[in-house]
Amino acid sequence: MVLRAKTLELFKSNNMNEIQNKNSKLNISEINDDKEVLNSYPRRLVFELTNLCNLSCVMCGRNDAEFEPTVFDLDWMEKFNSVLKHVEEVTLMGWGEPTVHPKFIKILEKMDKYNVRKYFCTNGMKLDEIKSALFDYNVDLIAVSLDGADAESNSKIRVGSDFDKIINSLKEIVKEKKERNTDKPYINFVFTAMKSNLHQIPDMVRLTKKIGLQELKVVYMTIFNERMLHESLYNSELDISRIFTQATELADKLDISIKLPHIQGEDIAENNYHKKCFVAWRDFFLGSDGYVRPCMSTPMKLFNINDYDDFDKMWNSKEYVDFRKRVNNNNLMDNSCKNCYQSSFANWNNKESFIQIGKEFSPEWKNE
């Protein structure tokens, strides 16, 4: 199965209760109706646990950002006790590696007290340390970043990564799933495509099958500095199309789901700055510095988590309502939205989606 454009629906793996189903139905309706003040709650909470990382990937925007190390404060989670009965999913994802948070397992344990999907993105280097917690606290979905189908290719890009360690950890998790007769956690690879590794996407499909994972997701690399410009896939649609066709045919043959971005010139966003964005309706994103942002791929800060004393006031705050008014209006939207590179909503017909050199692309994280 091949997927391209982001959909309103989230990954399904748990049995939602009546409250969650009612909220999700209302939320989708309010998105479709372009409501600005919402009666629904978000369907997903996204927590950036830290901006720290245990790798130094060559393409990462952290290399070109100025920031102080920040770590998510568990006390902030108290603000969400009332809303957690409504949301479908809690995602642990941001600019850093979530598993390096000193209380990562404690966070999984807390989330397991609620009927929510638990999802996190990781570089895979600590999977061996947290394997038991994945099953003890019923993690639903894991996205593992790997940018090469072999150790040498991956290590050139993801500096500090141990390919064999990651693959062995994944094999152990798949083995444990079989022994427990469970389909959780669902695991996919996330592959950042660039000039030097584009040809490896079919090999990534084979690796996905060999390990026993279900899905490969491909995203384009966004360029943040001049030294990586030679790796950009902007204006490489013929090469991309050829490789995507090979990978799609192979994925179909091996029964692997594959998610691919639109090819330049074919994006459904056409001439708009980005696809219709619904993050400020479906998601609530809290950064590791305590600032609420529309999504992880913007420098824009709406407010600090401590500026409001309860979630309802935050969710329909002036800042959120004003953003909902602007984000899909080509005449009103913020510059960072005009230059959107968020993998799900970017318009891959636009140069700015591929190249962010000279743009304000990341927040300024500060401990306050």
UniProtKB/TrEMBL annotation:
Cofactors: [4Fe-4S] cluster
A Pfam short name: Radical_SAM
Listed GO biological process terms: molybdopterin cofactor biosynthetic process
UniProt feature coiled coil, ranges: none
GO MF terms held by the record: 4 iron, 4 sulfur cluster binding; metal ion binding; oxidoreductase activity
Keyword Iron: yes
Domain Radical SAM core: 39-253
Protein name as it appears in the record: Putative tungsten-containing aldehyde ferredoxin oxidoreductase cofactor-modifying protein
